[in-house]
Write a structure and sequence with these properties.
The chain is mostly helical and 125 residues long. The protein is built from 7 helices and no strands.
Length: 125
Amino acid sequence: MTKAYRNHPLFRARQRAHAILLNNRGYVIARLSELFETQHETVSSWLGKWETEGLIGLYDCPRSGRSAPFTDKEQVIFLGYIDENPHQAKTATARLQEETGKKASLDTFKRVFKKSLRLETLPTK
């Protein structure tokens, strides 16, 4: 648990591991909720999930959210348009919107482009 508290990449998992360690040292739920600035029920839920699920209980459950406006294939097509004319981003967005019939803001296209840059910079094994 100490490794999770010190090294886990997700802040929430580190925070929950810290709460579990403090609880094992004798801190009561009321004090933990003050320290972590959360509701009493929240800390109680962390401890309950730890007891029933173990380390997996530290993670957030998947949540539903808004679906992406463009499919992965459409995003690849957009990135291809950008590769053809790197200085014509607005032209690429207009071209994809015309082909798909879907409308999106320029910010949406910027996010698609930034996400592709992040994926390119990930280390490979």
